[in-house]
Amino acid sequence: DRDLAVALRAAGAQVAMAWHRDDALPPGTDLVAVPGGFSFGDHLRCGAIASRAPVMADVRRHAERGGRVIGICNGFQVLCEAGLLPGALRRNATLSFVCRQMELEVGDPDTPWTAGLPAGATLSIPVKNNEGAWYGDPGEARVVLRYRAGDPLGSVDRVAGIANRAGNVMG
Description:
Elements: H1 2-10, E1 31-34, H2 55-64, E2 68-71, H3 74-81, E3 88-90, E4 98-106, E5 122-129, E6 133-135, E7 142-147, E8 159-163, E9 169-170
Parallel strand pairs: 1-2, 2-9
Antiparallel strand pairs: 3-6, 4-5, 4-7, 7-8
């Protein structure tokens, strides 16, 4: 969460932290960024317990009002478990932790997350997870990002990032 706060501040954002036990998001919240890490030790399913944290009710309301929500790594899992994004993230096809720089291609340039990038544009991002293989029906989501050359995780249709139909929630 601290690394994400540093990155958001570097991008010019004013950051106010929320805690899983909070009943509401900080006043004036424009963007909710759910960070990576291992929420609640991932003892049940990755993100399952965190998806039921008290603050998630307000995250859901924020998304329903059109507010932007992004989930990174474990945050992506939390958003799927909370029903804010379709599908689920499961164990990597290699059954091991994957840690490498990967090239992704923009599949949907018409979201707030990809505005200004043409379809097919290449992004290079670090991928670090053990349970990052997205499983679901690509027809139920907006496929925002795909792995460009191979997918060591085993995601359906090389999916690396999805958004809800409205495009305001992304994992």
